[in-house]
Design brief:
The complex is a heterodimer of chains A (about 100) and B (about 500).
Chain A (H helix, E strand, L loop, with lengths): L4 H10 L6 H18 L34 H5 L18
Chain B lengths: L1 H5 L2 H9 L5 H14 L6 E4 L1 H16 L11 E5 L26 H8 L3 E6 L33 H8 L5 E6 L5 H7 L2 E4 L19 E6 L2 H11 L29 E5 L9 H16 L3 E5 L4 H19 L18 H12 L2 H14 L5 H24 L2 E5 L15 H6 L5 H5 L4 E8 L5 E7 L5 H14 L16
Parallel strand pairs in B: 2-3, 2-4, 7-8, 7-9
Antiparallel strand pairs in B: 1-3, 4-6, 5-6, 5-10, 9-11, 10-11
The chains are: A mainly alpha (about 100), B alpha/beta (about 500).
Chain lengths: ~100, ~500
């Protein structure tokens, strides 16, 4: 299938990426090649075959509902690029 | 000192227990060798002081008789996508610059309890996406057998460090071959265990349904000793299986009499370098000489394994990597206005090209209008691949294939053509898709002196059988004992 610049823009928005023009052009060509290649799968008849998410028979795993210590807030905030001692800071989202 | 570096992890562990070598001496020897082989760029973070402190702690524990584990005091390394408390863990990505996890991965806890002495964090392809360790933000790692060649990937730093004798074993992760392929390119032994047998708690996710951690080491026995410590149920990983662990090393008899070794004809055809094919088939003959029976097999799905893998892995990656937004940890773009702008700039500048390529492919495969034709289709084909393995294992006990179609390519050759690089994963990705155990063992050298690897594939939970066959092979051959220096490579 043909991958258009619009489609690349659309999936970039979904991915929260904004490629510079040069990267976008290269990516359009590469994605088209890759998608053409993965289209090989369309040759296979898979009608009636269940999609397989888990290879092993997994069951619901329940644990006792007991209180466990959680990480101290200060430890987690140590890794934040812009913390204020209590929270992660981000640009204002509502006026 | 050279003698010390030539020991296997088990031999070193035994020498430490006998009091002939102290953990501190072993750590010092490793740190010295790391300095000698620095140009390989195998480590992204060296924790020398911590290692020496830790060696003293283990020494004291051994003296008090508190630690009996066979690898207590043996120096090792972690791939940089494994969380180590307070020690930078970056996945070799700019976007995780400065991230020091507040906790240890389960594998870290378990191996430290068994006396592991960690030397540092190992280089890798960014977020484990790549087959060469060239997409690392910290620059490419190099193959100790020949620095013009890649060590493979994505656990390339670990494979290079073990091959260059700067650590005795490493813990890597394998989503589509990332332990087995670098092990093959660097002439060492590596194991991807059955999905669910090693807890993924603390492994930074790439494709959660395929990721599994495992050892890279100098022999199948060393791998068994490591797996004995890290396998087993962990309540913190919901996909962790309730399996018995700890019996692999003790189960290595080297007896393969009557074992049926399946040779899938389709894995020895087009695209495979003839030297590689010959060496792998010669490995089959070695096992036959010890009593194994060779069985020719059909494995009809080979044309479909790579596309299935790339759709599923990319889809899961696009979802897993959505957490990197410049808010909670790691790197944040310097200039931004709105929140969306902050996300976009951080992600666009913080991720490398290969990671962005896979995120975009994944978003495409999951997006409305394409989901059924790509993602759902890939999950259906995954079911067919699993069925093909089930059929194969009705006729044999283990399968033998190449690990990769060629030996290690030169630096720079692979990244120019991503699709070609993806195709080189053809023998390793089906194992992850089916959740099976796979092992890579050295079985020869090509004309240029680069190592060749053979892959053993077992049925689910067939680690014991698989390791035993590799052990039998290593009792008959000495490829696994060779180091680059003996054959003109760089490592001393």
């Amino acid at each position: 299938m043909t991958i258009t610049a619009e489609l690349v823009d659309y999936i970039s928005t979904l991915s929260r990426l904004k490629l510079p023009q040069e990267e976008k052009e290269a990516m359009t060509v590469q994605l088209e090649r890759m998608i053409d290649y993965v289209d090989t799968l369309s040759q296979l008849d898979t009608s009636g075959i269940e999609p397989m998410s888990h290879v092993l028979p997994l069951e619901n795993v329940l644990r006792e509902d007991t209180v466990q210590p959680s990480f101290p807030r200060s430890d987690l905030l140590k890794n934040a690029p812009v913390p204020d001692g209590e929270a992660f800071l981000v640009p204002k989202t509502v006026e | 000192m050279t003698d010390l570096l030539e020991l296997t992890a088990l031999e070193l562990g035994a020498a430490i227990k006998r009091g002939e070598i102290t953990p501190t001496q072993a750590a010092e020897a490793a740190l010295e060798q790391m300095e000698e082989t620095k140009k390989d760029n195998a480590f992204v973070c060296i924790t020398a002081e911590l290692a020496l402190d830790r060696a003293k702690t283990v020494e004291a524990a051994l003296a008090r008789g508190e630690t009996r584990a066979p690898l207590a005091g043996v120096p090792m390394g972690w791939k940089d996508n494994i969380c180590t408390s307070g020690i930078p863990t970056t996945c070799a990505s700019k976007i995780l610059t400065g991230f020091a996890p507040p906790y240890d991965a389960t594998v870290v806890e378990r191996l430290e309890r068994a006396g592991a002495v960690a030397l540092g964090k190992l280089n890798m392809d960014e977020f484990a996406m790549g087959s060469t360790t060239e997409t690392s933000y910290y620059g490419p790692a190099r193959n100790p057998w020949n620095p013009d060649h890649v060590p493979g990937g994505s656990s390339g730093g670990g494979a290079a460090a073990v091959a260059a004798r700067s650590c005795w074993y490493a813990i890597g992760s394998d989503t589509g071959g990332s332990i087995r392929q670098p092990a093959a390119y660097c002439g060492i032994t590596g194991v991807k265990p059955t999905y669910g047998t090693v807890s993924r708690y603390g492994l930074i996710a790439y494709a959660s349904s395929l990721d599994q951690m495992g050892p890279l080491a100098r022999s199948a026995a060393d791998c068994a000793a490591v797996l004995d410590q890290i396998m087993g149920k962990d309540p913190r990983d919901g996909t962790s299986l309730d399996v018995e662990a700890g019996e692999l090393l003790g189960g290595l008899s080297g007896d393969v009499r009557g074992m049926k070794l399946g040779i899938p004809a389709g894995c020895f055809g087009e695209g495979l370098e003839s030297e590689v094919g010959k060496a792998v088939l010669a490995a089959a003959d070695v096992l036959r000489s010890r009593g194994a029976e060779l069985v020719e097999l059909e494995f009809p799905m080979m044309d479909y394994v790579v596309p299935t893998y790339y759709i599923i892995a990319a889809a899961e990656a696009s979802s897993n990597l959505s957490r990197y937004d410049g808010v909670k940890y790691g790197w944040r773009a310097e200039q931004y206005e709105t929140l969306t702008d902050l996300y976009q700039k951080t992600r666009t500048e913080g991720f490398g090209m290969e990671v962005k390529r896979r995120i975009l492919l994944g978003s495409f495969a999951l997006s409305a209008g394409y989901y059924d034709a790509y993602y759902k289709k890939a999950l259906q084909v995954k079911g067919l691949i699993r069925q093909a393995f089930d059929t194969a294992f009705q006729a044999c006990d283990l399968m033998l294939t190449p690990v990769a179609p060629t030996t290690a390519p030169k630096l720079g050759e692979s990244l120019s053509d991503p699709l070609k690089m993806y195709l080189s994963d053809i023998y390793t990705v089906p194992v992850n898709l089916a959740g099976l155990p796979g092992l890579s063992m050295p079985c020869g050298f090509d004309r240029a002196g680069l190592p060749i690897g053979a892959q053993l594939i077992g049925p689910a939970l067939g680690e014991g059988r698989m390791l035993n066959a590799a052990h039998a092979f290593q009792l008959e051959t000495d490829y696994h004992t060779m180091c680059p220096a003996q054959r003109g490579g760089r490592a001393k």
